[in-house]
Amino acid sequence: SPPLGVTQGRVITSEWIKLRSLRSTVFSLLAAVVCTIGLGLLISFLRAHDFQQHGFFPGPDFDPTLVSLRGIYLAQLAIGVLGVLMITGEYSTGMIRATLSAVPRRLPVLWAKAFVFAVTVFVITGIASLLAFLGGQAFLSGAGVGIHVGLSTPGAARAVLGGALYLTVVGLLGVGLGFLLRNTA
Question: Which is nearest to 47 in space by CA: 65, 20, 27, 25?
């Protein structure tokens, strides 16, 4: 058989296996999804309740898209921590030695970790942002005050994708800091 060498594709595959086999990945992503969807729905429900029960009407500065995506603010903590843990977890256990013995240069490892992390986080938080938006708009449109915002509304789809992109960039910042500092704290 031909000799096997180190390629970027193989490094990405190994990083994907490491990412999905860690419990911290599942818990951090679950926390981010629960924050994004749960808080988005809760805040939208409470705002709709205020409109119905207390007769409040939204003012000209009311942004229903922002109301349903408020959970992103707390979810960024979970995603940032996951980004840091993706790198520093290997340093704290000593597994980075095995990684760097298989891939002697550090940059292919960093690019692979960043790529796998970015794709995973963007897909999961994109779905969570979409669900938070759709659920939140269902609550707000049921309030009876004429709030009807959909994905076709100008800026709504951009806000949903922007939320996922924002969380991905926050996580990549955590990956970079973890790679530079090599310490979870």
Answer: 65
User: Which residues lie closer than 8 Å to 118 by C-beta, 6 or more apart?
Assistant: 168, 171, 172
Contact 96, 138 (CB under 8 A): no
pLDDT number for residue 61: 82
Tokens 């994907």, residue located: 16
Model pLDDT, residue 3: 64
For residue 65, give the amino acid letter.
T
Q: Are 168 and 119 in contact (CB under 8 A)?
A: no
DSSP secondary-structure letter at 143?
T
Mark the ranges of the chain whose per-residue pLDDT is less than 70: 1-3, 145
Give SS3 for 103: coil
Residue type for 132, please? A
Residues in CB range of 19: below 8 A, 6 or more apart: 25, 86, 116, 117, 120
* Per-residue pLDDT at 149: 85
Give the model's pLDDT for residue 60: 76
Residue 85's contacts (CB-CB under 8 Å, 6 or more residues apart) are 22, 24, 28, 178, 184
pLDDT of residue 71: 95
End-to-end C-alpha distance for the chain, whole angstroms? 45
CA dihedral 159, 163, 165, 171 (to 10 degrees): 170
